[in-house]
Design brief:
The complex is a heterodimer of chains A (624) and B (139). Chain A is an alpha+beta fold and 624 residues long. Helices cover 63% and strands 12% of the residues of chain A. Chain A has 4 domains: 1-164, no CATH class; 174-415, no CATH class; 416-498 and 602-623, no CATH class; 499-601, no CATH class. Chain A contains 17 helices and 11 strands. In chain A, the strands form 2 sheets. In chain A, strands 3, 4, 5, 6, 7 and 8 form a 6-stranded antiparallel β-sheet that branches. A 4-stranded antiparallel β-sheet of chain A has the order 2-11-10-9. In chain A, a hairpin with a 3-residue loop joins strand 4 (516-527) and strand 5 (531-542). In chain A, helix 7 packs antiparallel against helix 8 (200-231), helix 9 (242-267) runs antiparallel to helix 12 and helix 16 (475-497) packs antiparallel against helix 17 (600-623). Chain A is flat and about 80 Å long. Chain B is of the alpha+beta class and 139 residues long. Chain B has a 5-stranded mixed barrel. The longest helix of chain B has 31 residues, at 4-34. The radius of gyration of chain B is 23 Å and the shape is elongated. Classes of the chains: A alpha+beta (624), B alpha+beta (139). The interface between A and B is large, with 50 and 42 residues. Strand 1 of chain A pairs antiparallel with strand 1 of chain B, so a sheet runs across the interface.
């Protein structure tokens, strides 16, 4: 029943979208009538998709196995929370969620943009409806979440156990808010171009959307990263896996956009650049979906390998790209007040410089992610590209990037001089000495480390100082940049100081090295609702004489029959102690990994801090 | 002859072009050094010379071939035509099982021994790395 309602409200939903298009074209020159009705219509569209989404959730909660999606991804013994989150933990459901966010965002956009010119609003709505209808057709034609199966199965196939996790349950919605937010930016900049409304007011108004999408995208990536850290049991937080890269690329583009929209807002320059970036960001979000969903990249995110779906997204993507390029070339007007009044030392220059570096990082990640795909198509050579590729190409260029990030915010618009030169030099010397000292004590590779660490410290100290200095009171920027320096510092020291032990142990065995003793005391078995749990008890003694117990867990799920390891993590402000235990088939040995990960918690905290910077920027705008 | 503005623009374009060329050169150079090729056991048998480049080997874990002691895990990867011995000390993914697909990353010692430094995790019981699928389909 719920699926039936879900399906029909989806059909009515697409009708309402068509109605919106017809209605707005008919009354394009009749703003009064439009203003009255359009809000109701977009709300209706959102409401219908919500009903449809609720229909899917109810089918999941009731374990209605006559619904194919529920049958494929649910099971009666699954806890209620994962029944609900399972409704978007699959291809069909996640697309419905994407559509839901799309309709929600355009409703909010219409609701919040009352002060903007009507034609601009309606045109944005029209561009957005093209995307929405595309998704409607995609859902109904190739991946309906409401297909029937007959005879009705007794039991479902279950959800992949590694997806049964709280942070992964909320990871897709958060990430989608970010992705879908970029579609609003895309439609809005296209329509602003058509009605010739690219102005300081427009920049001010769209900046909120840029910030919101950016915050959600950052949080979504953070959640995925935290999940990978404790659930996949590799003990790292970023693997340069293609699916991770695919979310990082729109993030780079969006971060660049945040910075250059500032220039547009203050100086009405870089308009073409802002538009190109809006288009790029959305295209990257869409191609991310395409790469992940089409099955070209194999990962947790690949739900089904259906060529028809991949083809549809590809055609849809190209239609949107051509449409946007068409609009760009026909409607884009050259900046009229282009007096090219840029001076070498100014805020603009440093922002543009950082834009260029950001684009460079983006292209490195793009090449690393897509090159294996192209090579496979061209020569059928199968290759993969490891982390060294990214590290080698990104780390050296962080140095000038950091410098611009430190000095840039202290400069003024148009033309500026460096003030407080003395302080700047003093801080630089302190950072340099500190980093030399650290590099020397730790006996690590000299050249790149000492330069990089001193520049990170430089950013760290300068942002910290500006925080207490009234002269540079841009709190949001300050916090975000400080967070970034903290982020880099945590990553660097995490990388340098991490240590690990990997060994195979039987119950009663002891592993001994100079620094460490691990004793495998016992293993206890427990039956949970949908899995069997084995908890190992290990006594670890380190060289300082501290003794503590670690209890990594191994779960064997009933449906589907898969084993997962749950890492045991002891977190402190200074370092994480991390242990996983794996099963090796038919053997009495367990594969045990023990890691010390310094400053791990600061990586998460610093990303939150960067996000907080974005949040404060929105709050500040509202106050004005 | 040319105005200041034209000269400036020319300079900018030149700057952008050089940067682009340098960037592309850098990326390609680094790509060349960091690519990891995937091979099946049969391809390794026919390799002409053994260098110390990182490789990936994929296929199926042979039945009854897993041997484990406190230091290392030994097993055999087969593509049902040829096989190769793998020596590994590190973490194995939970779905590492006899008769299932596997991808090992590491270095060749000779044509019969492979020193693995990483065994890749699969996330799904039905999931087979595309490389393994291709290697198994070829036979």
């Amino acid at each position: 029943m719920a699926s039936l309602i879900g399906f029909y409200s989806l059909v009515f939903g697409i009708c309402s979208s068509v109605a919106i298009i017809i209605f707005s074209i008919q009354n394009f020159r009749n703003p009064k009538k439009l203003n009255e009705k359009i809000l109701i219509l977009t709300f209706l569209q959102f409401f219908l998709v919500t009903i449809s989404f609720l229909g899917l959730i109810i089918s999941f909660v009731n374990s209605d196995f006559s619904n194919e999606t529920v049958f494929n991804h649910s099971h009666t013994t699954k806890p209620l929370f994962y029944k609900i989150s399972g409704s978007w933990g699959n291809h069909e459901g996640s697309l419905l969620l994407w559509l839901l966010v799309l309709t929600l965002f355009i409703f909010l956009f219409i609701l919040k943009s009352g002060k903007q010119p009507t034609q601009y609003r309606i045109l944005t709505l029209l561009f957005q409806e093209i995307i929405i209808i595309g998704f409607f057709i995609f859902l109904l034609k190739t991946s309906s979440p409401f297909n029937y199966i007959y005879p009705i199965p007794e039991e479902g196939l279950g959800l992949n156990p590694i997806l049964q996790d709280p942070s992964l349950a909320i990871h897709p919605p958060i990430l989608y808010f970010g992705y879908v937010g970029t579609s609003i930016i895309f439609s809005s900049s296209l329509s602003a171009m058509v009605v010739n409304y690219i102005s300081k007011e427009w920049a001010k108004h769209i900046k909120v959307w840029v910030l919101i999408s950016w915050i959600f995208l950052t949080l979504g990536i953070l959640l995925g990263s935290i999940w990978a850290y404790y659930e996949l049991g590799w003990g790292g937080f970023w693997f340069w896996d293609p699916v991770e890269n695919v979310s990082l690329m729109p993030w780079f583009a969006l971060t660049t956009l945040i910075h250059c929209i500032l220039v547009l807002e203050k100086r009405l320059e870089l308009t073409s650049w802002v538009i190109i970036l809006s288009i790029t960001t959305f295209t990257l979000s869409m191609s991310g979906t395409f790469l992940v969903r089409s099955g070209i990249l194999n990962s947790v995110h690949t739900f089904a390998n259906d060529p028809e779906r991949g083809l549809f997204i590809l055609i849809f993507l190209f239609t949107l790209i051509f449409l946007s390029l068409f609009v760009f070339f026909f409607f884009h007007k050259k900046e009229t007040n282009n007096k090219s009044s840029f001076f070498l030392v100014s805020k603009e220059t440093s922002i543009i410089l950082n834009n260029w570096f950001m684009m460079y990082f983006l292209s490195v990640v793009l090449v690393g992610t897509t090159y294996p795909i192209f090579l496979d198509v061209i020569s059928s050579d199968k290759i993969s590209i490891g982390p060294p590729f990214y590290h080698k190409l990104i780390i050296p260029f962080l140095i000038p990037f950091l410098l611009a990030m430190t000095i840039g915010p202290r400069l003024k618009w148009i033309k500026s001089d460096l003030s407080d030169k003395f302080i700047l030099i003093i801080f630089f010397i302190i950072s340099l000495l500190l980093s030399l000292y650290i590099v020397k004590t730790l006996k690590i590779d000299f050249l790149i480390n000492s330069i990089l660490i001193s520049f990170v410290f430089y950013l760290f100290f300068i942002t910290l100082r500006d925080f207490f200095n009234k002269k540079y009171n841009n709190l949001s920027q300050n916090i975000a940049h400080f967070g970034f320096s903290l982020f880099l510092l945590s990553i660097i020291f995490n990388n340098i100081l991490s240590s690990e032990v990997i060994t195979n142990l039987k119950v009663g065995d002891t592993f001994k090295s100079e620094k460490l003793k691990i004793y495998f005391e016992n293993i206890t078995q427990k039956n949970e609702k949908n899995f069997e749990s084995f908890v190992g008890e290990f006594v670890v003694e380190n060289s300082q004489g501290d003794v503590f117990i670690m209890k990594p867990e191994l779960r064997i799920y009933n449906q589907p029959n898969i084993a997962t390891s749950e890492a045991y993590i002891r977190t402190s402000l200074f370092s994480d102690k991390f242990m996983t235990m794996n099963l090796v088939q038919n053997q009495e040995y367990f594969n045990v990994r023990y890691q010390i990960k310094p400053l791990m918690i600061w990586i998460w905290i610093s990303v939150l801090m960067i996000t907080l910077g974005g949040l404060m920027s929105i709050i500040k705008k509202n106050e004005n | 002859m040319y105005g200041r503005k034209v000269k400036l623009r020319f300079f900018y374009i030149l700057l952008i072009l050089t940067t682009l060329v340098l960037t592309i050169f850098l990326i390609l150079k680094s790509l060349e050094q960091n690519v990891i090729y995937f091979q099946s056991p049969s391809e390794i048998k026919n390799i002409s010379e053994i260098d110390n480049k990182k490789l990936r080997v994929g296929g199926m874990v042979k039945k009854d071939s897993i041997l484990i002691n406190s230091e290392e895990i030994n097993f055999i990867i087969t593509d049902l035509k040829n096989e190769i011995n793998v020596i590994y000390s590190g973490v194995v993914p939970n779905l590492f099982e006899e008769g299932k697909g596997v991808v090992a990353e590491g270095y060749l010692k000779d044509r019969n021994f492979f020193m693995a430094i990483k065994i890749l995790a699969k996330h799904d019981e039905n999931y087979m790395p595309p490389e393994v699928k291709a290697a198994l389909e070829e036979k």
